[in-house]
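[job 4471] stage=fold_predict status=RUNNING
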Amino acid sequence: MNTTASDITASTATASHTTASHTTASRTAASNAGASKAGAPSATASRTRRAAVAVAAAVLAGLALPAPASAAPDTARNPGDAEAAPARYTHQTLDWQPCAQQPTLDCATMTVPRDWHHPDTGADLKIAVSRHRAGDPAKRKGTLLMAAGGPGASGLLRPAGLATAAPAVGAAYDIVGFDQRGVGQSTRAVCQTPEEFTEFLAGDYRDQSPAAIDKVIANSKKLAASCQEHSGDLLPYLNTEQTAHDIDLFRGLLGEQKISYFGPSYASMIGAYYGTLFPHRVERMILDSNIGFDGTWEKFELGQPMSFQRRFDEDFVPWLAARDATYHWGSTPEQVQAHWEQRRAALHDQPITEGSLTIGPNQLDNGAISAIYEEATFPLLAQSLTAVDDWQAADPAAKTMAGRVFGQYLSPEFLAEYFSVTCGDTPWTKDMDTWVERGAENTARWPLAGARTLAFSAVCAAWPTAPAPKVKVTGAHLPTVLMLNSVHDPATYYEAALGAHRALRGSKLVTVTGSGDHGQYPTANTCVTGVVEGYLLDDRAPEHDLTCPSPQAG
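[job 4471] inference complete, writing structure tokens
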């Protein structure tokens, strides 16, 4: 994860181990820079993208769902489908009402089995779903389903943001979203209290002393044990494969034979799984900022320290050096790096504390990890750095921003889902000595995100549930899938996207050069917009992979 996922807001959570999911965090921060921020990732930001983290694999053959009474009967059955789901699920009626938090959307609650492979076992789960109706019914092309990144970010309100940022798509599609199982207004996982979680993020992950390492491992084991204690009977069913089945039930309840799909960040993996299990239900599919869904979460997350360091060193640091007149952090990359290390060391010795806010070395790293998802949030990080230089004399606006950037990254709610999915989708090495060794190597080589390797991986090494069944993504029987990725994306790094592209045979990859932003649509990049909307609105799928320069590089 960024551990992929990704917000400067309270739920900015793409953790940097992951991908943590991050994604809308940066955009949310950019759009709300002068205003008070909500704790959850903004779903209505005009440039909706999700962070990103994460990767995985798994799964059994899918269940075909008969259409509800109001829908046309399903005629296409996947040869691998199991027996149809019980009618109490497939014949339920969605009671659409205006969403309390976003009246331009309709919301409803869908009931799903705890375990799609044994639907008569265990208590049912509730999935919160939403809908934005097509603005031009006469030109309606169908339903476009969005999923959220993380794992751990809320997707319920995101259709409103996409409809606003991409009005042509909002006119032609019913855009639907949901909070995946374990998240938000759906049945949620619970692990730790905010106070317990503060201890998990405390200290300095770079500290390689035996006492510090022992403490990190103990905190990671405690977090895993807390998840088992509070959500144990739910954890085995919070995985990407089960979510794919939830999506297909939603499709059936909407009365659609096929749906189109848009999935940024971790949602790229959800889409790849859904397309693998239900290829005959996919009309069009866009995967934006891709997880390495051809492998395991362990493999994917071990690549993230490199990509976060690359983004920081090669993009943010030179950007900050070029603006020394404004931020006074050094006029060369070398001076900026030295300033960073000096400030971090000072926070190790004496963290900033003010009320409930603590800014220590880990919080400094976390804030940078979150803010470099998008260049639009570079100024927010830079402004925050001016505050930590001299906290007592800092400008009040800079201190407020620093509190958001360094004090609101990740949350116990986000990581409850994040670890459930990333630890439960695919196998993890269980040997703690291995993680101590890898953690030390990553800390030395890529310290920004590499320092947290031990803390996050040790959670998965101690995770109490077995991995979900493996699903091999191949692209078989799917229409052309459109994939998007920037070359310096810190969370869903380009090397992993290339592997996912190779695995998803028949897909077409749009490489965005001169950019490290996480999330490529919708943005101001007219090249990407033309390709995506030509695909969604005019049925023009690219014949070959192609390149789009970023606006800055153009």
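[job 4471] summary: The longest helix spans residues 297-321.
[job 4471] exit 0
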